[in-house]
């Protein structure tokens, strides 16, 4: 569980769990452009565009996840990302299916 000053992040795809943990920042592309989430961010619900999102975990290296649409929500330092398709470390493209 994340502590004060951290984000609690959960990333899931339509058919599988991707990642969860405490993070310092989350960056993603929405229908309205790029967004960066830091602790204390105002609540938001947004449509996730296809591309890459990144998570800077409290421990470990930056996590890059390729997504193919979906949505994400932020509320009380909790970030939930639900992607149609998602893959850690790479893009999600039709030719990889």
What is the residue-averaged pLDDT? 91
Low-confidence stretches: none
Distance between the termini: 34 Å
Gyration radius (Cα, Å) is 12 Å
Biggest sheet descriptor? 9 strands, mixed
Share in helix: under 10%
Number of strands: 9
- As a percent range, the share of strand residues is over 45%
Order of helices and strands: EEEEEEEEE
Structure in words:
The chain has strands at residues 7-13, 17-30, 33-37, 44-48, 51-57, 63-67, 70-75, 78-83, 86-88. With 97 residues, it is mainly beta. Strands 1, 2, 3, 4, 5, 6, 7, 8 and 9 form a nine-stranded mixed beta sheet that branches. The termini are far apart.
Blueprint (SSEs and pairs):
Blueprint: E1 7-13, E2 17-30, E3 33-37, E4 44-48, E5 51-57, E6 63-67, E7 70-75, E8 78-83, E9 86-88
In brief:
It contains no helices and 9 strands. With 97 residues, it is an all-beta fold.
Provide key terms for this protein.
9 strands, single chain, 97 residues, mainly beta
């Amino acid at each position: 569980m994340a502590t004060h000053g951290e984000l609690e992040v959960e990333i899931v795809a339509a058919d599988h769990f991707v990642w969860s943990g405490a993070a310092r920042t989350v960056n993603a592309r929405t229908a309205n452009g790029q967004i960066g989430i830091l602790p204390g961010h105002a609540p938001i619900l947004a449509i996730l565009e296809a591309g890459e999102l990144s998570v800077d975990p409290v421990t470990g290296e930056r996590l890059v996840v390729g997504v193919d649409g979906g949505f994400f929500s932020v509320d009380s330092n909790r970030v939930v990302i639900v992607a149609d398709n998602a893959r850690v470390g790479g893009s999600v493209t039709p030719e990889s299916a």
